[in-house]
């Protein structure tokens, strides 16, 4: 990355802070490759905290200029107006993704809002803080289309889709994820929104070993599939996604829908469309959901792909 490009970064942050609503939001998405020299830099606004992520090792000169510019930014009137509490640089290229506090004091467990719903985040210790911000439109779609539905949420993580579904009037949601700790955070997210947990199930299971139990709570009106691109020992995108798709016909109710997602730049929409044709030809592609404008990419096929099938 280039030190000479950093003034563009700081200008963009200043302008975005003036226009961003008072909820969690990506402010700068260098990984969309629209700003040469800043491709490995992102910044998220977590309602009082700026989290700047650096994804590849950079020269000391770049880091020094980044720190200095962020301190200068914190003195701008817009940061005082937005009640900025802290600025953190997360070094995503180092083991453990260490967080460096540049200004203020880190709130490691903030509660933030998105589209009127509340989520508990965890900062400073993990690669991901608990809510994938590029999936905002996907959660909004689920909320708008979940009324009276039985929903299956595969690779549930911290249950953002589940929170959206219950908020939208879903009758029941089944969340499945191998990580028990993530599902516990999902339970907290439901509590934060005052939801009735009798409508929500949390299964810390290996999906591929649990189809019988998953099927028991169907048929499902909506199945959500949002896996990691790669998870050592449990999921490899190009090998394992098809194993899920072929199970869909036995899981879905008549007129059931599927929201199938993939966030790997290595595959295009055709990966899901062709995979569905091969493994579950009964399901027809309907549309690709738009991504939030702040996640624009020079190649839309490299960005998040959230596809609807019916």
UniProtKB/TrEMBL annotation:
Signal peptide interval: none
Gene Ontology biological process terms from the UniProt entry: methylation; rRNA processing
Organism of origin: Vibrio xiamenensis
Lineage, top ranks: Bacteria, Pseudomonadati, Pseudomonadota, Gammaproteobacteria, Vibrionales
Gene3D superfamilies referenced in this protein's UniProt entry, alphabetically: Vaccinia Virus protein VP39
GO molecular function annotations of the record: methyltransferase activity
Superkingdom per UniProt: Bacteria
Alphabetical keyword list: Methyltransferase, rRNA processing, S-adenosyl-L-methionine, Transferase
Pfam family, one: Methyltrans_SAM
Protein name (record): 23S rRNA (Cytosine1962-C5)-methyltransferase
